[in-house]
Amino acid sequence: MGRRQQLVKGRALQTIADNKMPSYLPASDSDFDAWQKNFLAYATGHRPQLGLTLGDLIVPNSLAAVWDAQYAAHVAAQAAARAATQNKDAARAGLETQIRALAQRLQASPDVEDAERAALRLTVLDRSPTPVPVPATRPVVQIDTRQRLQHTLHFADETTPTSRRKPRGASAVEIWTKTGGPPPKDVSELAFLATDTRSPYLAVYELDHGGQPAHYMLRWINTKGQPGPWSQTATATIGA
What is the CATH number of domain 139-237? Predict the structure, then answer.
């Protein structure tokens, strides 16, 4: 073989190695088991034609016997594990059904005290109602005046001015107003306008209110109607 032919052959072998050709051996155990049985049976039955000696096949066949035994044990163990899991799940389901029925009886029984429920690791119910907090923060208001004879009031909490979420303890907002004249010096000058649970609120005015200022003060209330602190006064002219 000339030097050029040797170089070409060497490059071809290197290319095969670099490309890392996929293994001809199957990945799964079951496929590998079938593959190795076929391989060794054919190699043994066609030994002379393949140029193999008996010595060539002693070790592979010995290791195949070890594989056969270990693979069979593995398959049997997997089957046993599946059966054990099914039996365990069935036993737990039956036990849970009985325990839940008994636990419900004990939870409903007037003879069982909370200390005994705790000892049984049952849920101990909180029988004291959680007090509803009085709102502690103030609403902030933005007024949209683009529509004639209308004010759209966008309100939020001062702690989260970019969110519509109400503060803790608040269920709604009270809207109070004064139409015309200077801003109110005291809340006694205000008139109740509405209660709203979600921003925005639309205030609609009569024609004779056009051109007058409208002053608004808001406050959060909880589910018991208890109010929080007043907002700053928000003022806008009613478009005529």
Answer: 2.60.40.10
